[in-house]
Write a structure and sequence with these properties.
By secondary structure, the chain is an alpha/beta fold. Helices cover 38% and strands 14% of the residues. The protein has 9 helices and 6 strands.
Length: 246
């Protein structure tokens, strides 16, 4: 049985995974998308489906449980879900988001300002600025529509604030990350959201934590949103090759 649980990042929603879900579903994968409910969609914390009992020995068929998560996404999943993953694809993600030292102090102050803007007259401008930085060097119109365009709910605003607090407080790898998982790290060289120091620290922490060295893809002239046309195909092929090599 092949399954994917996908999780969007801060200020996003599950609709961004629609092309991924279509592609993977056509190739026999069971897809579930987590949802924080920032906008008009109901929040959803996905869990792994249990394989149907058909009388065969469950040990004979290898289960594939794949987490694909963007940015803050791995930290938003239940540790018990992440802990059961056989493969993890980390898209523009991080362990500690706020680096230590002067760079971190300035970033922390900016994030506090974003928290204050949520629910204020400056909310729309703050979110649009964040999304522009996430998309760059590509244009903002390349991003799929999300909660910012559809409108935030009051409960969604509360969740945005709480998740921003979680982001500020991240201090290492997401809880539950299994040491035996095979991990693919995908980054853009022009990421304007995740600091280079945070990205480097993340990869070193993964290398120390995992039994198998993580693989890393770095796309030149690509930003935090990873607007790479065939990325979903490349990830699917990496997973298929990984299965054959196991």
């Amino acid at each position: 049985m092949k399954q994917v649980i996908a999780m969007h990042g801060w200020s996003g929603d599950s609709t961004a995974w629609a092309p991924w879900e279509r592609h993977f579903s056509h190739r026999g994968w069971l897809w579930q998308s987590g949802e924080r409910g920032y906008g008009n969609r109901r929040s959803c914390n996905p869990s792994w489906a249990e394989p149907a009992s058909d009388g065969t020995n469950p040990c004979m068929a290898r289960q594939r449980r794949v987490v694909i998560a963007h940015s803050l996404g791995p930290h938003l999943l239940e540790p018990s879900v992440l802990n059961q993953a056989t493969d993890v694809v980390l898209l523009a993600s991080f362990g500690r988001f706020v680096p230590q030292g002067p760079e971190g102090r300035a970033l922390r102050a900016g994030l506090r300002g974003m928290q204050i803007a949520i629910g204020s007259p400056g909310e729309a401008t703050m979110l649009r600025t964040f999304l522009k930085r996430a998309a760059q060097p590509a244009d903002l119109c390349g991003l799929p529509p999300g909660p910012e365009q559809h409108g935030l709910s009051q409960s969604g605003r509360d969740c945005l604030k709480n998740d921003l607090e979680l982001l500020i407080g991240t201090s290492g790898l997401p809880p539950g990350l299994p040491t035996a998982a095979r991990v693919l790290v995908v980054d853009g060289t022009d990421d304007a959201i995740v600091a280079p120091a945070a990205s480097r620290e993340h990869f070193f922490a993964l290398t120390s934590h995992l039994q198998h060295a993580p693989e890393r893809w770095q796309f030149k002239d690509v930003g935090h949103a990873l607007l790479v046309q065939d990325l979903l195909v490349r990830v699917q092929q990496w997973l298929d090759h990984n299965s054959q090599a196991s």
